[in-house]
Structure formats: C-alpha cells, structure tokens
Design goal:
About 40% of the residues lie in helices and about 25% in strands. By secondary structure, the chain is α/β, with parallel strands linked by helices. Helix 8 packs antiparallel against helix 10 and helix 11 crosses helix 15.
Amino acid sequence: RILTWNSSAERIYGFTSDEVAGKSMQILVPHELREEETGILERLPRGEQVIAFETGRVRKDGSRIPVSLTISPIRNREGQIIGASHIARDITDLRNLSERMQQAQKLESLGVLAGGIAHDFNNLLVGILGNASLVLDTMHGENRGLLHEIVRAGERAAELTSQLLAYAGKGRFYVQPIDISGLVDEISRLIRTSISPFVTLHLDLAEHLPPIEGDSGQIHQLVMNLVINAAEAIADGCPGEVFVRTGLMDADEHRLALGHRGERLQAGRYIVLEVRDTGCGMDGPTQSRIFDPFFTTKFTGRGLGLSAVLGIVGTHKGLLQVESAPGVGTTFRIFLPAAPVQAAPPTRAHTSRNRAGEGIVLVVDDEEIVRSAARNALERLGYSVLEASDGQEAVSVFADRHGEIGAIVLDLKMPNMGGEEALLRVREIREDIPVILSSGVSEAEALRRFEGQRIAGFVQKPYTPAQLGEKVKAARGSAGAPMRT
C-alpha cells in the first residue's frame, strides 16, 4: 500500500498524494500486468531488489505510460523488512527515441538491400536492352514488333530499378530550380485523372515561393505517390477529400527533430509540402511499416510507393513527418530546403548525331553480360574493344597497351579492385586517358566519389548502344575536365 507520494509521482501519474494515500499499488497496474506485479512484490520479503525493470503503468486519466522501476526493501533497526522504496522513472521519450532508431536502422538496411538489387538488375538490363536494340536496328518484318515489346519491357524494368535506387537514396539526380507550387499545379490534371471520382482534390498552393534545388522527375514522382496514396486511403466508392498545401516555413531545430527516420536538420527556411486525407487513418503498427518496400494495406503488387517517397526526400536533404490515427485520416508533411538564390538551369551535353568511331576502347565491368553488350555496341560503331573483369585486370591490360587504348569505360563497383582505385592506377600510367564512368548509382553520387578527378563522361546503367556510343565519341575528343559537386 502507498504510504508516501512525492510531487514527481503526482506529475507522472496524475494522482495527488491525498488520492492515493493508503491505497494499493494495483491502482497503477494495467490488468494484464497484475500477475507480473505480484511476482515483483513476492521478491521483496526475501530481501531482493528490483533494478531498472521496464514495464507499464496506468495514469489517472486511463492512459498508459512506460516506466523503469527500481524497488528496494526497507528494514528497521532489527533488520526486519517493513516496507519498500519504490522509484519510477518515466521512459516515454527514451522508448520513442529507441523506436525511431530501430526504424531508422531497419530502413537503412532495406535501403542497402534495394540498392544492391537495383545494381544487379541494372547489369542484366544493360544486356537485355543493349542486345535487343542492336538486333532491332537490323531486323525487318513481323519479328521487329516482338523485339519492340522486349525493349519496352526492359524500359519498364529500368523504371522499377529507378524507384529502387530512389528508395535507397541513390536515384538519378539532375539538379535544377523547381517551383514546387508550379509543379503541383502543372500535374494537378494528371493527379485528378489518377484518383477516384468520389475523392475531391483541394489545392492550396502558395505563390512566389523560393525554389528548391532538385530533380523535377523525382519530385513529380513524390507528389503523385503521396496524393494517390492519400486517395486510396479513402474507402472505395465513398466520398472523401485530399488536401495538398504548399508554403514556406522558418523552422527551428525542435520543429525539424520529428522526422520519420529520426534524422535532424538544421534550422532554416524550408518549403513545406503537405498532403492530408480524410481516409481511414493508421494505427501504430501500420505506420511502422508503411515505408517498407512493397508493403501495402491494399491488394498486392502495389510497387514501391511510399518507399520511393522516403528515399527521394532523403536524396533532397529533406525531412518527412507523418501524423495519423484510426478514423481521423493521415497527414504527410515534407520539408525541403529552400534554395538561397535562383540556381541556373542545368546544362545538357551536346549530343552528336555522327557516332561512327575508331580506335580501341577498354570496357571494365565485373558482369560478363555488360561487357558483351558494350562490346557489341561499340564494335557496331567501328571501335575495337578490350575487356577487363575487375580493376586489377584493367590496370594490367592498360599497362600493356596504354599507347593504343583511346578511352576506358569503367564500372564503379567491382570485386578485387573497384573503380576508384583502378582510376588512380591507370592515371599513374597515363594521365590523359579519357575515362567514362558507368554505374547504376546516380551521377551525383559518382560526382561525390570522384570529386576533383578528370572524368570525360558518365553513362547511367541501364544504357542503350546509342547512349554509350555518344559518351565514348564525346570522350575521345577530350581527356576530361575535373568533376565538381
């Protein structure tokens, strides 16, 4: 029974000292934990302590609270146990932090997995798209249509790998200034045709917002996924509403400390994109899984959806917050850094129509299907091709024939010796050799890894023969310029 009750206990549990004096401790114990509490109390007469035991308690208003308990027997002068010191610590914040850290670690692991799958899948697509495109250029008759279907299927598969890379935070990334309100307004007609006619879409778009710096394709995908997800949270055939709002916020660090991944952003000016629905809402277990790849509360086969959203937000150095409860609806709130100044539009490399080539190109990739597709494409264009399956073999081949080789197509991720070390080693042999990087990661990621290096070009996997030919043709005319982030 409770004999004394201090002010901290009043604050934690909501009861005053007068309300609990003389009453059983069971008033604080949830019904399903009564047996556990009995087991704890049975240890005290034996002189045992309970140290930092985590359990749950009930507050005066009926809400639950996680606590850490330390209970010690109290003895009189004769050593007899006459009571117990019962100390409870509110661990709500600690539990929330722990759950957010676990969620962040889970998402990070899934991101690594997604990136790995996309890497291997892209290598296969290089072979599929490359060889099918080459055959398509020479084929006539009824089978040409079948090859067109193969190429189209490969391109759809490439879109899926792009979503996987976006989830992993390594998607293709072409930076340009984006008016978020203008983008939402532009795609609003497409959005309306993509959602149920029973759902009303409301736009509240702030004017004259500072731009964000990012990839318009990825932001387009982000908005579409969020709005479609919000519309689908409304029961089929039932009327509902989806609200899309944009605005500018000078957010402090406290406001930005509530991201889904547990990340923290610096205080500053942020463009806010908010998507709110009047749908069914989500309970805690559902919220903990909504960003898992292919998780859905709808029918199967939904794709990446919110998983890609989370990756896109991370790629743009932003933050995502979710508020939801069953029967209340859901709000997704995205914070993206406002650009300090109007950024210049990105420049695009000039594409040469004449892709006929000559000379020797060294293709370095650990996947035989990629080397084969690249060799077929380059030989069709008039080049001679040497191959290497990893960085060590590439350095060896280049050491023997560095005077003849006109360019290198270099994969980033390989066993034994990766692209970074291989580049340094071949440059020790011949400093002016043009090198085209080839990878499934984004060009921005390649820029980061090779900052300050002279790189003649970058070709994103999966690529077509024409794209590879254009990059090699351009690289042959230059030894490359320093890459800058």
